[in-house]
Specification:
- By secondary structure, the protein is an alpha+beta fold.
- It has one domain.
- The chain has two helices and six strands.
- The strands form two sheets. A four-stranded mixed β-sheet has the order 3-5-6-4, with helices on both faces.
- The longest helix is centred in the last third of the chain and has 22 residues.
- InterPro entries: RemA-like.
- It holds the Pfam family RemA-like.
- Belongs to the RemA family.
């Protein structure tokens, strides 16, 4: 019910498919990123910039973003608010 979420540089994802937004600094997440690359499930949306957030989807795809996790989370929240406002207008 989140719709499309901007993850930076004109890239958008389906908010309903995201199950986690995490900071990429830990070793387990670096391994997860490497495994996804080997399996062909890594999507790099950083445009060569530093990875600041890793988004994990329900299909086990790993999406790299150059936007901070907090910023992406705020965009999810804003998207939900906009959807609720539109639903209230219809009711």
């Amino acid at each position: 019910m989140y719709g499309l979420i901007n993850i930076g540089f004109g890239n958008v994802i389906s908010g309903d498919r995201v199950i986690a937004i995490v900071n990429p600094e830990s070793a387990p997440l670096k391994r997860l990123k490497d495994e996804a690359k080997d399996e062909g499930k890594l999507i790099d949306a950083t445009y060569g910039r530093k990875t600041r957030a890793i988004l994990i989807t329900d299909s086990n795809h790993i999406i790299l973003s150059a936007i901070q996790p907090e910023t992406i989370a705020q965009r999810f929240k804003q998207s939900m608010i906009e959807i609720e406002e539109n639903l209230n207008k219809v009711r």
